[in-house]
Automatic annotation (TrEMBL):
It comes from the Eukaryota. It comes from Seriola dumerili (Greater amberjack). The keyword Hydrolase does not apply. It is an enzyme of class 2 (transferase). GO terms for molecular function: phosphatidate cytidylyltransferase activity. It catalyses: a 1,2-diacyl-sn-glycero-3-phosphate + CTP + H(+) = a CDP-1,2-diacyl-sn-glycerol + diphosphate. Its EC number is 2.7.7.41. This is Phosphatidate cytidylyltransferase, mitochondrial. GO terms for biological process: cardiolipin biosynthetic process; CDP-diacylglycerol biosynthetic process. InterPro entries: Tam41 (IPR015222). Its cofactor is Mg(2+). One of its GO terms (cellular component) is mitochondrial inner membrane. Keywords: Lipid biosynthesis, Lipid metabolism, Magnesium, Membrane, Mitochondrion, Mitochondrion inner membrane, Nucleotidyltransferase, Phospholipid biosynthesis, Phospholipid metabolism, Transferase.
Length: 331
């Protein structure tokens, strides 16, 4: 399965891409300059900045070529050369290097450069969720290479956000509920939703792009054995049994599993991930645990939120788990 293409690539995007080195494994445009949001006119959209992400196999080579073609795009870091730029890109933050407020073809754009390897890692494991989160929402896919590992990671990322959303939603819900949950999850890796971002942005994105979300997720929902999907009614029913929730927890990205384990495992226990997730799956508040861990894990305030996480609730869970048989006793 490949990621659905939402639109044909327009002339504007082809003209912009033609001004960059062509060794790109994945390129997409996203944001309010690409997709209409509720309350935004077409005229306003055309004035908004266009946002791009380029994945490249060899960042040093790509930045070398781009410095020759587009030296003015770079900040003072251009003085330190492509190796330093690539080092900063790969070793800090979300492994993305951005050039911002760049005038190209009558529009203002910003573009982020990430290595293909770092992108695949984020898609598969949600290490930062920065680019993976953007790809939870509809984007305008401009370039997609035949890299089989990258294509599989793109689909895995979509499946992961559906699974995480199932755990946080009730047994029965609508497509709109699901897409709102997905769009909300996608911003966990974006610090702007913690500081200075319009909190109604998630609802606005889903309202005017409902059909784009449907195109992106319909095949995954139809193929998923954990859910009954009724596209005509726009309704879904998910398996909320302990067995169903355990299956969903085991399918989560590795980083999220590890952070659930770290948060809920009593100090000194050092149990394996499977045992802990089995006990979380049996807890009536399983979804709330996943929601809390997800919210605190990728935000700048995550450390303080983790510290202030409901200690009474955790103590209640731990006491309840002590009354339950262990994995070895159940097997």
């Amino acid at each position: 399965m490949t990621l659905p293409a939402l639109h044909n690539t327009g002339v504007l995007y082809r003209r912009i891409l033609s001004q960059f080195p062509q060794d790109i494994s994945l390129a997409f445009a996203y944001g309010s300059g690409v997709f209409k949001q509720h309350g935004t006119s077409q005229g306003q959209m055309e004035k908004n900045m266009l946002d791009f992400v380029f994945a490249v196999d060899d960042p040093v080579t790509w930045h070398t070529m781009n410095l020759l073609q587009n030296r003015k795009h770079y900040s003072i870091l251009k003085l330190f050369g492509p190796t330093m730029i690539s080092s900063i890109q790969n070793e800090h933050g979300a492994a993305v290097y951005y050039n911002t407020l760049v005038p190209v073809d009558g529009r203002i754009i910003k573009y982020g450069v990430i290595s293909t390897e770092s992108l695949i890692d984020d898609l598969m494991h949600w290490k930062t969720l920065y680019v993976a989160g953007r790809l939870h929402k509809p984007v305008k896919m401009l370039v997609q290479s035949e890299n089989a590992k990258l294509r599989a990671a793109l689909v895995a990322n979509l499946k992961s956000t559906v699974t995480a959303s199932f755990l946080m939603l009730p047994e029965s819900f609508t497509e709109e509920d699901l897409f709102l949950q997905i769009a909300g999850l996608s911003y966990a890796g974006d610090f702007r939703m913690v500081i200075g971002e319009d909190k109604s942005k998630v609802a606005n994105i889903v309202k005017d792009n409902f059909q784009h979300f449907r195109i992106l997720y319909s095949n995954i929902l139809r193929d998923c054995p954990q859910v009954v999907y009724k596209p005509q009614q726009g309704k879904l029913e998910v398996d909320k049994s302990p067995e169903g929730q355990f299956t969903q927890l085991m399918a989560l990205p590795r980083t999220l599993q590890q952070r659930i384990t770290k948060l809920v495992d009593p100090p000194g226990k050092n149990r394996d991930v499977e045992e802990i997730l089995l006990q979380v799956a049996q807890d009536p508040d399983c979804g709330a645990v996943v929601q809390q861990v997800h919210c605190v894990s990728w935000s700048p305030s995550g450390l303080w939120k983790t510290v202030s996480y409901s200690s009474k609730k955790l103590m209640k869970m731990w006491k309840g788990w002590r009354r339950k048989p262990s994995v070895s006793q159940m097997s």
